[in-house]
Amino acid sequence: MPKIFLSSFILGALLLMGAGCASSSVSPSPSPTPVVTVPTPMSAPLNSVTYTLQDVAAHKTASDCWMAISGKVYNVTAYIPNHSGGGVITLGCGTDATQMFDAKSKHLSPQSLSLLKTFYVGDLK
Known about the structure:
By secondary structure, the protein is α+β, with helices and mostly antiparallel strands.
């Protein structure tokens, strides 16, 4: 019985040493690079800015045109020269233009509708 015990002990020790040697020859893999997600400008704001209709009304000219549409506030000043309907867009400057927009939006392409979100500046109180 002592021979079997000694043989088992030696065999176990050799296996452990062999496992240790094998693992010591392998270099550890580098730590993974952390993934950082950067929000895009159009992602949902953490702290949304809110405006009153009085705030929107202060921007009522073609050179400074804000409008409220469906509870959101948009600064569309830069878009006025590109608007396919011409200067009619300026009728909504400084107002809640939801009804005006809804009446025309059914004739707009999905691309035109998605363009609106690029002019978003905040929510209407």
